[in-house]
Automatic annotation (TrEMBL):
It comes from Paenibacillus sedimenti. Coiled coil: none annotated. Keywords: Signal. It is found in: Cell envelope. Residues 11-228 form the Ionotropic glutamate receptor C-terminal domain. Signal peptide: none annotated. It comes from the Bacteria. Residues 11-228 form the Solute-binding protein family 3/N-terminal domain. Belongs to the bacterial solute-binding protein 3 family. GO terms for cellular component: cell envelope; membrane. This is Transporter substrate-binding domain-containing protein. One of its GO terms (molecular function) is ligand-gated monoatomic ion channel activity.
């Protein structure tokens, strides 16, 4: 058996978004979240030494492509466009996008009601792509999703479109009852670990994802962060 002292493998850099609750976020100088803990378990199984590098979402893909970080984990959705540049692990989380509006908004009940409305979201995300394809919608896009939520709280925009679990987290913990989720899930998205094409880790990461799913680690973390 190898102990960590015997391995000469380098410590790799793993990029995370600094504000994607409850998956990865930085609070009081500490990196926290479901994926921070999931990654810790994966890395342990795969015998990967790593350090986390928190950054804004917009910097993540660039940092992977440039090799500044070796991998990224941060609610990254599989898309065809990204497949050209990036390599993916197997998916470990199924989710989708939702619409968030003001609690007293009686007009917006779903995607059909967004024509001529102002929708806020985060730059460079699947939510941005989705919103841009809705007929007649006016998009305000921010580097940080907190700014989109703030604008909705102040009623400067009509709605936010973003990843369901992050929207839930905001609406339950920060929104002071000022917002509500409306309609169905708009899309089906799978979250994956992302790497550049030159990486040699994805195979081991996939084996470790399977291992943490089989031994109950994944389920325990899921329950801790999302409830039963
Ligand atoms: N799932 C979304 C995407 O991949 C948002 C990810 C994020 O903001 N960290 O674009």
């Amino acid at each position: 058996l190898l102990t960590s002292g015997c391995t000469t493998e380098k410590t790799i850099k793993v990029g995370i978004e600094n504000n994607f609750r409850p998956f990865t976020f930085t609070e009081g100088g500490e990196n926290k979240g479901f994926e921070v803990e999931l990654w810790q378990a994966i890395a342990q199984k795969a015998n990967i030494k790593y350090e986390l590098v928190p950054m804004e979402n917009g910097e993540l893909s660039k940092s992977i492509k440039s090799g500044e970080v070796d991998l990224a984990i941060s609610g990254m959705t599989i898309t065809n466009a990204r497949k050209n540049n990036l390599e993916y692990s197997n998916p470990y989380f199924q989710t989708g996008l939702v619409i968030l509006t003001s609690s007293d908004n009686v007009v917006i009940k779903g995607k059909e009601d967004l024509a001529q409305k102002v929708v806020a979201t985060q730059n460079g995300t699947t939510a941005y792509n989705y919103a841009s394809e809705i007929q007649g919608v006016k998009i305000r896009s921010y580097p940080n999703i907190s700014d989109a939520y703030d604008e909705l709280k102040k009623k400067n925009v009509d709605a936010v479109i973003f990843d369901e679990r992050n929207v839930n987290d905001f609406s339950q913990n920060t929104a002071e009852g000022k917002v509500k989720i409306v309609g169905e899930l708009l899309s089906k998205e799978s979250y994956v670990v992302v790497a550049n094409k030159r990486n040699k880790y994805i195979g081991r990461v996939n084996q470790a994802i399977e291992a943490v799913s089989k031994d109950g680690t994944y389920e325990a973390l899921y329950t801790k962060w999302f409830g039963a």
